[in-house]
Automatic annotation (TrEMBL):
Disordered: annotated span: 136-160
Origin superkingdom: Bacteria
Record protein name field: Membrane protein
Length: 176
């Protein structure tokens, strides 16, 4: 046991220097016990409230967003025009929609004599011209869909013209 002598001496010094024993668990006071169930119930209510609010918000969005789109679309003027030119072999269909900034235009075109560079020009009722879109038609005359925009509104456009990049008219789409 003499081998443990220094360790025994150190433990004795530590026992004299250490404070008296403290109980590992303090007793719970009556105020804490009275408040605890109420606090747990409040946290559970808050946890149930989150999903309910999210569901209500999703329901409001599901009802309001399509309704707003219907109201916005109701005021928009849409003009659809189609034409074909036997001489050039070009067939085209234009859909022009009234937008806050002018006209949103979608063009579907088939060019049997392609490939060639083309452009769509909107001609106003006053004779002014506005470039709408430019594209290169594919070999073999396959369909091409082009989207573009112009400042004149559909109501102010007399016609649309599909032209080559050199200015030759391929087809004229009269608005009315």
């Amino acid at each position: 046991m003499s081998a443990f002598g220094p360790v025994t001496r150190q433990l004795g010094l530590y026992r004299r220097a250490a404070p008296p024993v403290v109980r590992p668990f303090a007793s719970v006071g009556p105020r804490l016990l009275g408040r605890l169930p109420a606090e747990v119930a409040a946290r559970r209510r808050a946890a149930r409230r989150g999903p309910r609010c999210a569901t209500a918000a999703a329901l409001v969005c599901a009802v309001a967003v399509p309704g707003a789109a219907v109201v916005a679309a109701r005021g928009a003027e849409t003009v659809r025009v189609a034409a074909a030119d036997a001489r050039s072999g070009v067939r085209a269909r234009v859909t022009a929609t009234d937008r806050p900034w002018g006209s949103g235009v979608e063009l579907e075109v088939r060019d049997g004599a392609g490939p060639r560079s083309c452009r769509l020009v909107a001609v106003g009722r006053d004779g002014s011209e506005a470039a709408v879109a430019a594209w290169r038609s594919p070999q073999g005359g396959g369909p091409t869909t082009v989207r573009g925009g112009a400042a004149p509104r559909p109501s102010g456009t007399a016609r649309c013209e599909v032209r080559t990049s050199g200015g030759e008219r391929l087809v004229v789409l009269s608005a009315r």
